[in-house]
Amino acid sequence: MDFNGSHILSIDQFDRSDIDTLFSVAESLEPFSLRKKATRVLEGAILGSMFFEPSTRTRISFGAAFNLLGGAVRETTEIESSSIVKGESLIDTAQVLSGYSDIIVMRHSEEGSVEAFSRASRVPVINGGDGSNEHPTQALLDLFTIKRELNVNNKTIDGLRIALVGDLKFGRSVHSLSKVLSLYKDVTINLISPEELKLPSPYLTFLKKSGVNVNESENLEEGITEVDIVYMTRIQEERFKKKSDASKYKGLLSLNKAIYTANCEPNTVIMHPLPRDSRQEANELDSDLYENPNLAIFRQADNGVVIRMALFALVLGVVDKIKETSREVNWHTSKRH
Fold first, then answer.
1. Is the pLDDT of residue 78 over 70?
2. What is the helix (H) or strand (E) element at residue 217, kind and residue range?
3. What does pTM read for this prediction?
4. Which residues have a catalytic role annotated?
5. CB 72: neighbour CB atoms within 10 A?
6. Exposed/middle/buried for 86, CB within 10 Å: 0-12, 13-18, 19+?
């Protein structure tokens, strides 16, 4: 892929070489994401952050990533705060806001909406999640996390054994992650979900044709044995026609300390794209796992910043200019080591 000036709309755009490039840039940017160094390489550039669905980690990490590269962020949150409620089309919105921005990140509830927006935009657009379709940057940060966590145990993504657990029907993070894992050799994916929330058949067919070893089960304990990663997800309540339809699946697949200890290998890593539904009736990832050193969910969230910094640097063509704009930071906080 030629990153410079490109839209980032789907994980399908990436091959292994592109991922290697992205991860290499991300690793070079870690001193900046950790606030050990500072850069103003994107000074004067504006990120249009357009989130028409609720978001915490994705929205704020994109904004933080752009700020850490020296750029400014202008946000639109929720459809109600935009002229779309007055009947303005996405096409008109794209034409206007791309005139105010140098790059745009967008999240929308409708599948395919970000791609449609990008066709009318005059600047690069990054997909921050479109309905239950895709979440490409989440898949990239997840893969980066998987690589790092496996490296601790001298393993690689080739040969990965992973259990994807929960709402596999509506979970866009799972959709994108499963596709990008198909680029690697000898991968085994255990798909664990209620029958009604199984991974949609097009994804399942794609995985099998790509040579991925796929096992399906409704049994959590059975599915999380002999895996390197357990990737938990919440029930995507907002994708159901009625909340009562979602409620019957909450709590069916919940991982806690007892289940983990009884069934998982000692070094099995626990991941979750977050937010975790901590309400008692759901609680797919119990708080009694917080002291487990294999719980990677917050390392995973942290990785979102540096991966998104790398994407901005590549798409806006400033990778080779970062070093020359680097300087020491002027402040100190307890988080800086």
1. no
2. strand 213-217
3. 0.93
4. 57-58, 86, 107, 135
5. 15
6. exposed
